[in-house]
Design brief:
By secondary structure, the chain is α/β, with parallel strands linked by helices. It has 14 helices and 24 strands. It binds ligand EPZ.
């Protein structure tokens, strides 16, 4: 298994381009199932999770043609199986996003239950409940979701919890249903909005994406479209924190600051200077490495968009380990998203966990050590800690990182970091 070897202590400086958003590209690839016409996509990030999703879609019969760097075209004119098998779904929960499109277009789907993952049980009961409200007959047997319906019918659906992929699954299903569907308490994440924009280009009639009430008027079929995937706000946030922690000065190209309001607010609270234009964000900070003014500790509490994103929680925990005082990090979305705490403690971080809140007391410095990645964003937070730790840090099991960060070590090297991948 690959490892990352990082020498800490170097302020990051320079420019990097932010990739397309993993969490927008994944549902948008599944939207390709909704039409027999070609769906041309740009700014598709080159990530392990994207490769996994493409493998699943090809297994069903979708033809994928790669038109160049981060460009591809999907052709779902000859789908011959409506099943998402366990061995594919178990490695990536987002596979559940084929359920809505398969039911909408073919009236049948057999999708393995995703099972839990490192950060929590992550059930899909709200996906199922919503599809049943639209008339689908669904039962679970032998670990599979067996679903069938003649024709989905529009329905008014109140989502008990804000669920990102739940909202996406039901929105896609509703595009071809008979009548109008109203999703209440819908997720407002920018990735939901990007999926809606792609579906509208395909001919779907959707209003309210980005608000908590989305109205979808079913149409008889969807057609061809071209869509560039929105930039990855979490990848961008991760680099912004890296620059703030190392006392660097970086500029991120191809990113929209308005997708990161809560994160930028919190970064400014640390004392970092954040500026932006309509397509880039710059951050500079005295950071811990200069020994001049320290980063100020900043407390965060995760919640659905537009509040502070759970996918940035681990990164801000890393920042607080070397900030000047005490901060709390409270995780309200997932029940077990503190797997990075023990690993940071190995680097000398002073963190205590009480239920879903971590209390972090900033220390003057971290010491390099060997640590292990556990889930995607936890792994990213270990890279951040390693960038400021004294000496060398080795991060094992970095396949987690490859799931969600395109060319991470290349981009960090471009910014001056001393990092290398060891087979
Ligand atoms: C999406 O996961 C993202 N993944 C996650 O990003 C992100 O952390 C999460 O949204 C929250 O923002 C993708 O978009 C592919 P949820 P999702 O359904 O949709 C509970 C990353 O690092 N719930 O919004 O699976 C659930 O257990 C990944 O890129 C139910 O109880 O998350 C959780 O506690 C990690 N029943 C809460 O809702 C359901 O039917 C929010 O989950 C669905 C969800």
């Amino acid at each position: 298994m690959d490892k990352l070897v990082i020498q800490g202590g170097i302020p990051l400086n320079g420019e990097v381009r932010i990739s397309g958003a993993k969490n927008a590209a994944l549902p948008i690839l599944c939207a390709g199932l909704l039409t027999e016409a070609p769906l041309k996509l740009g700014n598709v990030p080159d990530l392990h999770d994207i490769a996994t999703m493409l493998k699943l879609l090809e297994h069903m019969g979708i033809k994928v043609s790669r038109d160049g760097q981060n460009q591809l075209t999907l052709d779902a004119s000859d789908i011959h199986t409506h099943e998402a098998p366990y061995d594919m779904v178990k490695t990536m929960r987002a596979s559940i996003l084929v359920l809505g499109p398969l039911l909408a277009r073919f009236g049948h789907a057999r999708v393995s239950l995703p099972g839990g993952c490192a950060i929590g049980s992550r059930p899909v009961d709200l996906h199922i409940k919503g599809l049943q409200a639209m008339g689908a007959e669904i039962h679970i047997e032998h670990g599979y979701i067996e679903a069938k319906v003649d024709k989905l019918k529009g329905a008014r659906i109140f989502m008990d919890l804000v669920t990102v992929t739940g909202t996406e699954n039901l929105m896609m299903a509703a595009t071809l249903a008979e009548g109008t569907t109203i999703l209440e308490n819908a997720a407002k994440e920018p990735e939901v909005v990007d999926l809606a924009e792609c579906l509208i280009k395909m001919g779907a009639q959707i209003e309210g994406a980005g608000s908590d009430v989305i109205t979808i008027k079913g149409v008889s079929s969807l057609g061809a479209a071209q869509h560039d995937v929105v930039c990855d706000r979490i990848e961008a946030g991760t680099y912004l924190v890296a620059a703030a922690m190392t006392g660097g000065n970086i500029r991120l190209q191809h990113v929209r600051a308005e997708l990161l309001d809560a994160v930028i607010d919190k970064l400014r609270e640390t004392g970092a200077t954040v500026t932006h234009d309509d397509n880039s964000i710059s951050v500079s900070s005295v950071g811990v490495l200069q020994g001049k003014g320290n980063l100020r500790s900043v407390s965060v509490r995760t919640a659905p968009h537009p509040a502070f994103p759970t996918d940035m929680q681990a990164q801000f925990m890393a920042l607080n380990t070397v900030a000047d005082a005490v901060a709390t990090v409270t995780e309200t979305i997932f029940e077990n998203r503190f797997m990075h705490v023990q690993e940071m403690q190995r680097l000398g971080a002073n963190i205590e966990v009480e239920g879903n809140t971590a209390i972090i007391r900033g220390t003057e410095f971290l010491e390099g050590a060997t640590v292990m990645a556990t889930d995607l964003r936890a792994s990213a937070s270990l890279v951040l800690a390693a960038l400021v730790a004294r000496g060398e840090t080795v991060i094992e099991r970095i396949y987690h990182l490859d799931r969600g960060y395109e060319r991470l070590e290349d981009k960090l090297t471009q910014l001056g970091a001393r990092i290398q991948r060891v087979k």
